[in-house]
TrEMBL record:
It holds the Pfam family SnoaL_4. InterPro entries: NTF2-like_dom_sf (IPR032710), SnoaL-like (IPR037401). This is SnoaL-like domain-containing protein. Signal peptide: none annotated. It comes from the Bacteria.
Amino acid sequence: MTSVEDRVRLLEEQLTELRDVRAIEELAARYHSLCDGGWAGDSHPDLDALVALWVPDGVYDINAARPPCRGHDEIRAQFLRLRSSMPWILHTLMNPEVEVRGDTATARFKAVAYYRRGGGSHVVVGSYDGAFARTPDGWRFTSWVADLAHGDVLS
């Protein structure tokens, strides 16, 4: 039989892991919320808040036709481009698979994005693969990579 101290320690470890998983899910959701917009102002409206989701040398890779963005300056420039190239966008995020290992974690999320570009409405589906680090400011992306499985024009 395990001691009360052992059971309490195990419960504390499980609670910490659950809090970490939830914090990573919230980080991914915050990314999508900060990207979305266009119906009452710009998409990607708060560049500072978006960039702050990454560690300073983080990687952001959402476009297979462009090299990955590395570091805050390149990530900010990408969001500024997206503001004009996708003036209206809405994301959904689902099916989180999060694995925490101490102060690092990995995760995969399925996603659907609806957006307008060049006068047409589009949809794209795929997944995001993330790597994360615990920082003094909470969990942050070290890498966030989109793997787009399918896209189509809706109109």
